[in-house]
């Protein structure tokens, strides 16, 4: 407890000792952990398995105890004092860690290097040593651990390839609905910051794999261009980082994540192109014809060039006005019906468009419907009225039909644009 200027008392934050994290990543982790009552501080060691002068792996009253959130090439753990031991049951801290109630995190023995004395805040400089049990309760009076059990963790492997070589980082993060997405993001961010700390132009290809128990692995690919290196904004856009949070908070059922793998291939430079405009040869096109859509692209410090994409104009659209959208792949979401179960939710996460593609969307006046997780396009009005009666809801959703053409681009593309074109009346 800490005295305040008003004469009252408030509970101080619990120190979270980190090792192996780059400075900027540790600061970001500190901001993320603050709402949970954890204060990030530099810890002993530099990640990996500690080699310290300890005698045996046991917990005893008055001795140190650690609770791990991350271990491996990076480490994040809180160290406190054992209060009471009764067989397998251990009470410690004398206060909550972050007040999570029933929760399961690895508990370790710990080595205290020294005490840092401060009027503002004294704390132990400590390193977790060996896993000895699992946290089971995080309550207002104390934390409780069971030394006869082991907490499951999630392995995270990050491989970063740069022009200088390839390096792999391995860590295990706590399995916790709220903390896991944040910890995975920090592990990935730290691996990238370790090898690419500069704020510079960079192009990255990222392949992510997430193992979900009971389902085939989820595989994703992202391509990024960034002017500021691979900072938090880029990391938060990586498929694996986004997917972890979506999976753990899905509305259908609990999921078990078995492993997370991220492979990053980096190159330095501004190898990207901005979509500047799009045009057709005429503002009217013949029904049933093939036309050439020309997309003007401006590379960085280079000459503007044109990508030509052939488009087929359906004859049935005679007399209609079409909207044609052209966008970088990462800005377009594939047509997917709203999922109705966990399997559909996971399947909906798999398809995506690469930012090394131009995606052309031709919007048509046709309508379809989404029914039980499936898309049924181009339905006549009578069938749409049957599926979506005025006196009931929830039977079918509206789906606006359209056509998609995916065109491979020479480099990472950014931006989007659109135009309208009229299809000539059909000659009778």
What does this protein look like?
Helix content is 13%, strand content 48%. The chain is mainly beta. It has a 6-stranded antiparallel β-barrel. Strand 11 and strand 12 (165-174) form a beta hairpin. 35% of the residues are buried.
How would you concisely characterize the structure shown here?
The chain contains six helices and 25 strands. It has helices at residues 23-33, 179-195, 232-235, 239-248, 342-347, 381-387, and strands at residues 2-3, 9-10, 14-19, 38-42, 64-72, 75-86, 89-92, 101-116, 123-138, 143-146, 153-162, 165-174, 202-212, 218-226, 257-268, 272-279, 284-285, 290-299, 305-312, 321-328, 357-371, 374-376, 397-408, 412-414, 416-423.
Features:
428 residues; mainly beta; six-stranded antiparallel β-barrel; six-stranded mixed sheet; 25 strands
Give a topology summary.
Blueprint: E1 2-3, E2 9-10, E3 14-19, H1 23-33, E4 38-42, E5 64-72, E6 75-86, E7 89-92, E8 101-116, E9 123-138, E10 143-146, E11 153-162, E12 165-174, H2 179-195, E13 202-212, E14 218-226, H3 232-235, H4 239-248, E15 257-268, E16 272-279, E17 284-285, E18 290-299, E19 305-312, E20 321-328, H5 342-347, E21 357-371, E22 374-376, H6 381-387, E23 397-408, E24 412-414, E25 416-423
Parallel strand pairs: 3-4, 11-15, 16-24, 17-25
Antiparallel strand pairs: 1-2, 3-6, 5-6, 5-8, 5-12, 6-7, 7-10, 8-9, 9-10, 11-12, 13-14, 13-15, 16-18, 18-19, 20-21, 20-25, 21-22, 21-23
Helix pairs in contact: 1-2, 2-4
């Amino acid at each position: 407890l800490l005295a305040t200027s008003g004469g009252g008392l408030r509970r101080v934050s619990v120190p979270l000792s980190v090792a192996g994290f780059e400075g900027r990543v540790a600061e970001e982790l500190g901001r993320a952990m603050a709402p949970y009552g954890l204060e990030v501080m530099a810890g002993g060691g530099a990640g990996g398995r500690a080699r310290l002068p300890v005698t045996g792996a046991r917990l005893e009253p008055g001795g140190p105890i650690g609770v791990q959130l991350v271990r491996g090439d990076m480490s994040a753990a809180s160290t406190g004092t054992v209060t009471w031991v009764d067989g397998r049951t251990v009470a410690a801290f004398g206060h909550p860690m972050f007040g999570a109630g029933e929760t399961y995190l690895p508990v370790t023995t710990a080595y205290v290097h020294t005490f840092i004395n401060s009027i503002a805040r004294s704390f132990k400089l400590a390193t977790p040593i060996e896993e000895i049990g699992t946290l089971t309760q995080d309550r207002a009076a104390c934390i409780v651990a069971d030394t006869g059990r082991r907490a499951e963790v999630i392995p995270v492997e990050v491989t970063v390839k740069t022009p200088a070589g390839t390096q792999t980082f391995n860590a295990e993060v706590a399995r916790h609905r709220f903390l896991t997405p944040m910890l995975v993001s920090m592990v990935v961010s730290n691996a990238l910051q370790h090898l690419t700390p500069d704020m510079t132009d960079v192009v990255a290809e990222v392949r992510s794999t997430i193992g979900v128990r009971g389902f085939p692995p989820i595989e994703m690919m992202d391509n990024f261009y960034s002017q500021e290196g691979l900072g938090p904004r880029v990391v938060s856009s990586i498929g694996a980082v986004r997917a972890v949070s979506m999976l753990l908070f899905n509305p259908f059922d609990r999921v078990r994540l078995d492993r997370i793998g991220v492979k990053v291939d980096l190159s330095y430079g501004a190898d990207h192109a901005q979509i500047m405009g799009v045009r057709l040869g005429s503002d009217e096109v013949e029904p049933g014809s093939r036309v050439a859509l020309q997309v003007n692209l401006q590379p960085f410090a280079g000459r503007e060039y044109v990508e030509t994409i052939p488009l087929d104009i359906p004859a049935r659209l005679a007399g209609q006005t079409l909207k044609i959208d052209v966008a970088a792949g990462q800005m377009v979401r594939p047509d997917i019906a709203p999922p109705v179960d966990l399997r559909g939710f996971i399947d909906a996460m798999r398809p995506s468009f690469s930012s090394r593609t131009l995606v052309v969307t031709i919007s048509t006046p046709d309508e379809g419907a989404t029914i039980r997780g499936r898309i049924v396009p181009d339905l006549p009005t009578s069938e749409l009225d049957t599926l979506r009666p005025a006196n009931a809801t929830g039977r079918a959703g509206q789906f606006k039909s359209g056509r998609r053409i995916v065109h491979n681009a020479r480099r990472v593309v950014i931006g989007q644009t659109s135009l309208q074109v009229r299809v000539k009346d059909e000659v009778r």
